[in-house]
Amino acid sequence: MNAELQGIGMTSRRTRMRLVQRLRDEGISDEQVLAAIGEVPRHIFLDEALSHRAYEDTALPIGQGQTLSQPYIVARMTEVLMAHKPRKVLEVGTGSGYQTAILAGMAEQVFSVERIRILQEQARQRLRKLGYRNVMLRLSDGGMGWPEMGPFDGIMVTAAPRELPRELLDQLADGGVMVAPVGEKTQMLVEVVREGDQFHTTEIEPVRFVPLLGGVVR
Questions:
Q1: Among the four residues 52, 112, 131, 133, which has the most C-beta atoms within 10 Å?
Q2: Which pLDDT tens digit goes with each residue over 84-113?
Q3: Which sequence positions are flagged as catalytic?
């Protein structure tokens, strides 16, 4: 990671540390996840007009009808996923690239798919600027995943399908874990662990995400 990420200012650093403490108070206990939240400059992943709100524990718009998830949700999903120590991770929904950066700091390889070209290009620029070299991006229908690069030890879905796509389940390695919001009006964050041909699902907590849509927006 380059010098910009390491030294983006003491004021911003103190603000991020306050966010980390808030997340700890809210029940996030994985210190590696909290360290990643403390290191990654969330304001980089927002338009300048919203950057002053970057370290609030709230979801924020990133354009194209999409949002940057609430830091608590980012931390919670990452905590659940990384408890299984995945080395090779698929992210469905690159969005701003913030969650991608958090994952890239903890996994050996991150493969991220996004259906909206403008968001993908913005994310690519931000991740490159911050010096990440273990991330591959693809413009694609997220529900299809990235089968050519599978199987994956971990899959994180950052938009809500009505039900878990079979295509994504098939890309989980044996022993792999998927973390995803599922549902329409009522959504539940779930953890799915694969054991051979069996998929064991655990409900985590209610959430609210934008829907997982098909197709590509060029």
A1: 112
A2: 999 999 999 999 999 999 999 999 999 999
A3: 69
Q: How far apart are CA 77 and CA 80, in angstroms?
A: 5
Residue among 101, 62, 78 nearest 177 (CA): 78
Is residue 59 a contact partner of residue 69, using CB atoms and an 8 Å limit? yes
Q: Calculate the alpha carbon distances from 157 to 14, 52, 169, 181, 187 in Å.
A: 30, 27, 11, 7, 13
Domain span including residue 194:
58-207
- The CATH number given to whatever domain includes residue 119 is 3.40.50.150
CA distance readout (Å), 24 to 7, 30, 56, 204: 23, 9, 14, 17
Q: Tens digit of pLDDT for each residue in 177-203?
A: 999 999 988 999 999 999 999 999 999
Residue 107 lies in a domain: yes
Number of independent structural domains in the chain: 1
* DSSP 8-state code for residue 211: B
Q: What is the pTM of this model?
A: 0.91
